[in-house]
Please model this.
Amino acid sequence: MKAINLEEKLTKFDEYWSPRIVAEVNNHQIKVAKSLGSFVWHKHDDSDEMFLVIKGKLIIEFRDRKVTLNPGDLCVVPKGVEHRPVSPEEAHVLLFEPKGLLNTGDTKSDLTADNPEWI
Amino acid sequence: MKAINLEEKLTKFDEYWSPRIVAEVNNHQIKVAKSLGSFVWHKHDDSDEMFLVIKGKLIIEFRDRKVTLNPGDLCVVPKGVEHRPVSPEEAHVLLFEPKGLLNTGDTKSDLTADNPEWI
Model:
């Protein structure tokens, strides 16, 4: 049991779209990620996914709408719903999702992070 | 799918130690709470619990240590571990915990919130 500082964790890596694990809560993990530019369209058939913006701006594009997240905003993407995260400026994001969730869901991509690191 | 702003949600209530639900992610919920003073000693036999401080200061007392959380700090309390949250100054806190988790765990108290509201 210890304090985990998100800003400090975010100094430990620079790669965009490469989530790192900072904690586990039951069957879920808390990850942090940096984003810039466009990610890939994908969905997670078996899981919801939560994005909370700590810094910068993250737009979650859906097929029928866009949701813009500024610091202090969160959005839950329901399971099975196609989405594409886009950051017009660098963002720092906290993710809450089940252990083992693949960042690119059902889409194979160079951005697929098979085995995210603990930091 | 929409943006949920935590600060705006936190303007909707004033009661301390009375978590409100803002979102669901799979079998878990995201809640916000305001804290001031001392909560009760308790544990959750079947669940971990995560505290992330948004504003102010929250100290999580354990039987053998204290963990001080400032804004941007989180702490996971493992299941079965006795703890008492204490806020020497008002804090705003984000909680990740399973649906139905009782705020006072195995301890019955006037602070027990049986049926937290969605806001």
Q: What stands out?
A: Residues 6-98 of chain A form a domain with the Jelly Rolls fold (CATH 2.60.120.10). The first strand of chain A starts at residue 4 and ends at 5. Residues 51 and 85 of chain A are 10 Å apart (CA to CA).
